[in-house]
Amino acid sequence: MMWLLPIIVIGGLFFPALGYLVVGFAALFLPLSFFKGRYWCSHLCPRGAFLDIVMSRASIGKPFPKQFTKMWFRWLIFIILMGFLVYRVSKTGGNVVKLGTVFVSMCLLTTIISIIIAIITKHRGWCLICPMGMLQEKISKIKNKK
Predict the structure, then answer these.
(1) Which range of residues forms the domain containing residue 80?
(2) Model pTM?
(3) DSSP string, 94-111
């Protein structure tokens, strides 16, 4: 699945409609997490595959700072990114091309962040704070509470 990441973050710069793939994956895999937990993360995530295959070679392998794995920090990252997303979506005026561009740019932004984290910590450091992964984790716990 690693090939999807450059298609979205590079191809999406020229064809903004590719940003809708991001929405499609979230719409498909968030409900699936009720049954399969973080299945997306460990089996299908294009960014995770990129981090495993490419960034594992560039990573210095330092542990991810423990304070950043705390739930309050993960929620803070989630709120900041979702707030930024909502703000950007509100500025599109309903233009479908601009909306696609928002999703492409969010994917590009989080990919750049994941690369920086991969270089200065372990290659999958981003996965510890990934909003999609956190949501999958929370949704899977709903099932376990029943």
Answers:
(1) 4-145
(2) 0.89
(3) T-HHHHHHHHHHHHHHHH
